[in-house]
Design a protein that fits this description.
The chain is an alpha+beta fold and 139 residues long. It has one domain: Pnp Oxidase, Chain A. Strands 1, 2, 3, 4, 5, 6, 7 and 8 form an 8-stranded antiparallel β-sheet that branches. Strand 1 and strand 2 form a beta hairpin. About 6% of the residues have low confidence.
Length: 139
C-alpha cells in the first residue's frame, strides 16, 4: 500500500478518536458488534478483543470497523479489512489490515453518477484515494 495512503488513513483514524465498533460475523451468520478502543500502529489497526470477537475474526477474517457520527452534519467512517488474531492466554489482539475505507453520511450524493447513492468520500480504495476528511456542506 502506498505510504501516502497509509498516512492519510492513519490521520483519519486519529481524527475520529479511539472508539469504534468492531463488526464480525458469527458461525450462524449473525452480526456481532462490540465497541472498543482501537489504535493505528505500523499501518494496521489493533485492538484487544474478547473471546467471541476473536473466534469470529479467526474463522471469518473479513471484518469492518465503524467509527460513528459525532454530530448531525458528521460522517460515519467505515474501514473494511482482513483480520488476524494473536492470542496469548486470555488476551486476544486483533490486527486489521485495511482494504477499504470510506466516510459516509445519509445525504444526497454530490455526484449523481457515483456508485454510492449517499454522500460517500472514499479514503482507501483500489484506485487513487481521495482527500483525508470530507468537509460538511451547509444547505
Amino acid at each position: 500500500m502506498n505510504v501516502d495512503v497509509l498516512h492519510r488513513l492513519g490521520e483519519a483514524i486519529a481524527e475520529r478518536g479511539p472508539g469504534a465498533y468492531v463488526l464480525t460475523v458469527s458461525s450462524d451468520g449473525r452480526p456481532h458488534a462490540v465497541y472498543l478502543n482501537v489504535a493505528w500502529t505500523n499501518g494496521r489497526i489493533v485492538a484487544e478483543v474478547g473471546k467471541t470477537t476473536a473466534a469470529n475474526a479467526k474463522a471469518r477474517p473479513e471484518i469492518s470497523l465503524l467509527f460513528p457520527v459525532r454530530g448531525a452534519d458528521d460522517y460515519s467512517f467505515f474501514v473494511d479489512g482482513r483480520a488476524a488474531v494473536e492470542s496469548g492466554g486470555a488476551v486476544h489482539r486483533l490486527v486489521l489490515t485495511p482494504t477499504r475505507a470510506v466516510f459516509h453520511r445519509h445525504a444526497p450524493a454530490p455526484d449523481p453518477n457515483a456508485s454510492c447513492a449517499a454522500d460517500c468520500v472514499p479514503v482507501l480504495q483500489a484506485t487513487a484515494p481521495l482527500p483525508l476528511s470530507p468537509r460538511p456542506t451547509r444547505s
